[in-house]
Specification:
single chain; 106 residues; alpha+beta; five-stranded antiparallel sheet; globular
């Protein structure tokens, strides 16, 4: 097993991939995953060491873009917690390594 190291140069894109992570203004890392037939934002809750669905059905989308658009349309949807950054990953594995980087300890 190799430890994941973040890339030293930031890359940008204007096309969302299938594997999308978002950072929220409260410091949470989130992933957009398809569960059932809708896409949900799943957030890590570091203080309670669990994951939680953010926003409820109101913010579930038909695609990662639709889900993000619903959050942005409502501007700040959860007690003034907003999406601050959007990250696209090349694989599910890379997305999960980013998502769990601060929450899994040996």
């Amino acid at each position: 097993m190799k430890r994941y190291v973040e890339k030293t140069e930031e890359e940008t894109t204007n096309v969302l991939s299938d594997w999308v992570g978002v950072a929220l203004s409260d410091g949470s890392k989130c992933v957009i995953l398809c569960i059932g037939k809708k896409y949900h934002i799943i957030c890590n809750v570091l203080s309670d060491r669990h994951n939680d669905v953010c926003g409820g059905r109101k913010f579930d989308g038909d695609s990662p873009k639709d889900t993000i658009d619903k959050w942005k349309k409502d501007n700040c949807c959860l007690a003034d917690i907003c999406i601050t950054d959007i990250y696209c990953f090349e694989s599910y594995k890379e997305l999960m390594q980013w998502f769990t980087a601060d929450s899994i300890t040996d």
